[in-house]
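**User:** My hope is that you can spare some time for a protein that puzzles me. I have put the entry right below:
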Amino acid sequence: MIKFAKNLSVMQRIYLLLMLSVLSFGYGQTIDQVLEEAKKKNITTKEGALRFLDENGYTESQARQIARIKGIDFDLYLESLANSSASNIQAGKSLDNVVSEIDVDAETFTTTQTNVLPENPEKNQDFDSYFGYSIFDNNPFASKEYLMGNIDEGYLIAPGDELKLTVFGDNQLDLIVKVDLNGNIRIPDVGLFFASGSSFVKLKERLLIYLGRYFSGLLAKPQKSFLDVSLTQIRPVKVTVLGESKTPGAHLVSGFATVLNALYAAGGVNPSGSLREIKVYRNNKLINTLDLYDYITKGNLDSDFRLTNNDIIFIPSRLSTVKLIGEVKNEGVYELKPKETLSDLIRFSGNLPAEAATNAVNVKRITPFLNRTQDQQYNQYITSVNYGNLVKEKKDFILVDGDEVTFESILDEVRNKLQISGNVNQPGVFSTQQYKDLRSLIVYGSKGIQPNTYLSKVDIFRENELGVKGFSTYDLTSVLIESINVRLIEKDSIKVYSLEEVEGEKMVTISGFLSDKEFVSDSLTIDSIKTKEKSFFWRKNQSLYDLIFQNTLLGDQKYNSKLLPRVDVKRYNKETGLYQINNYSLENTDVIKELYLLPDDKVVLYSQAVDKNISRTIRIGGFVQSPGIYPLSENMYVEDAILTASGFTEYADKDYVIVNRENFVLGTGKLSDRTIVKVDLEYLRGKTKVPKQIFFLKDKDIVSVQKPGGKGELKTLEIKGSVNYPRSIVLENELNSFLSIINQVGGLKSDANLSASYIIRNGKTLSYNLNESKSRKEAIFEDGDQIYISSNNGVVETDGAIENPTQFIWLPNKRAKYYIRNSGGKTLKESSNSYLILSNRKTKKINFFKNPKVQPNSKIVINRKVKSENVKGEGVDNFLKILAVLTSTLTTILLANNL
């Protein structure tokens, strides 16, 4: 027996205390019964359970297996036991005596923890595509009802089984006995009875005869005593699952367990294992083969049978892999036996849906190993199978390993279909078998035409044999009165038009100086009431006054004060094709109430802004809460404008503001006058009626509120890299040198390299050399800057037209050409200009005369030449042009010297 581990934690030991109290209980116990049994056996402390485990060597996995066989719900039991009364009931047998009641052969407990099925096994990703393996997803192994059921009369009694014998009538007996290792049961005052090897039904017959010699009335006629025999506990059975199992090895199952039960107990079958030929061996002989496809596709369990102790279940590798895709009920990878056919595959998948096309089933097949040749380039080919003909001819198509079967969908075309749309009462799709002509389709199929139908036209769109679409037009009136008969064919599409589609919808529009009904504020401006053109359906007897009244605020005084009395009606002239303008006065109400609008009329309203300014505004900006443009009020002070903008912001200068007033002087370039106005805070707070310095604002004045320079602007920047305390800091002075900043972070590390250091500003590298003495003293830093102090542990990268672009560990005092040489040198035919890009983004040329010093984290780039066509020809032309210019120049010089 395996000794209990001494190094378990306290929590693990308490857990096992709760768990192991189920070891000696019977099948199908309720929680209350289990709790009562635990109290009787004095299992109330963790010390007792630990002593029991140490002395008898039980492991957690073994205890779990026994509990499962006995049908106990572990989670529910543990929860109930943990919450039960803490009182110790000193009744029944001691815990030490429990061992004698667990009479299970030690051999059955050799299963290791690794073979125990996890409570929540992780689902294999292949299960979704491989057919059949998903039946093991919802494993019932942990259910307390698992493997339990009615007692089979053919069940063979064996050591470990527990029987209840009851004699009633003239004689009384109530006894629970267990079959010992020798196969006997002990009946007090009677003797030993050999029970092992008998079926349950045979055992009851033998016991009746055996006990009839000791209890009168059992064999008498008429019978006066009666015998009842029942199984109260069934022995566990050890089976071994090998091959492609989720958890191969030995497993404990109930004596009633079948092959399928054992497969569930082992966690199921791997996708690489076979579901078609699961073999069962007993005493080294193959006794049966199980095909789970019968169970999966038909629900047939006829081939399943009960296991006995030491049976071996072997799961071989998959027999074949055949893929089924396309228009089928269950796509997936199936396993077929040799010589199984396309019909078998379809049957396994649940048969075909109605939309599957059967006249051309594609089978992609891999050429078998034996049929492949050396000169064969491809080893896959497609065969098309007419499955419909095979069914009619009662033939079939044999599938082999590696086949991929694809069913396509039938064509998405419908026969005998007509479609009608447009201005009918019931547009839709109809059948040519019922409606053979256009009139019957419109009158009976579409339930007639709507009132505003255009009667001079109906179109039929039709496709000819070549697939070219065209249409034919008919007079709808002639069709309806049966002057003409238009025959229809399948796929015809009919369109009936409305008057609006042909003649256009009858509309009127209004635009210009409009306003919404919600307009009530004092901030009325030209911009706030100018709207886009509004269109409405024309209706008969609608007057000009009606349209204006519905879309403006004629009764609002503010609106009327800005509205020009003129209103224009633009009316379309069919003869000229132009709009004619007719103007009316809004003050002449009687006229505009009697003027009825016609279709396509356009009404335009105007504001008084056509000849004067009616929207006077001021603008206030700077450090106020709500800067913007506001209406100018009568006798408006500067303080009033500040209040209108919701007051000052923090740090604003509350003493003075600047007012710019428009003063355009032609020819001088002058645009405005600037005035500094002192703010009266007492008036601003409402303590005085007028400000001390009266300054009335005028139209288009701009008020600017300023703040003292630098006030309220705290600068923060971040220092990273090779400093002692990299962090974000707040600058304490308005001007801060690099040295003062470095001191705030504890100074530079010993490996710092200022020449390679750089500054990031607004997300871009600032080209600035921090190693220069003047740079350390200058105050150039701004809010949000990031300073990165490089170290000597950087790298150097080469790239471009170079033989072997790579990266190097930076070495002190090495120059650019050193790294170019160690990268294999330039690609001479492609290389052009060379550059050294330093980490602070400064760029230096590399040429015959220049070999700059390299810093850490630098990059050397060799540009590639730009290829162009006719380079040689262009070079000759350029040379001739230059030569001509030089010759002309020399000639001019000679002539000048000779003069």
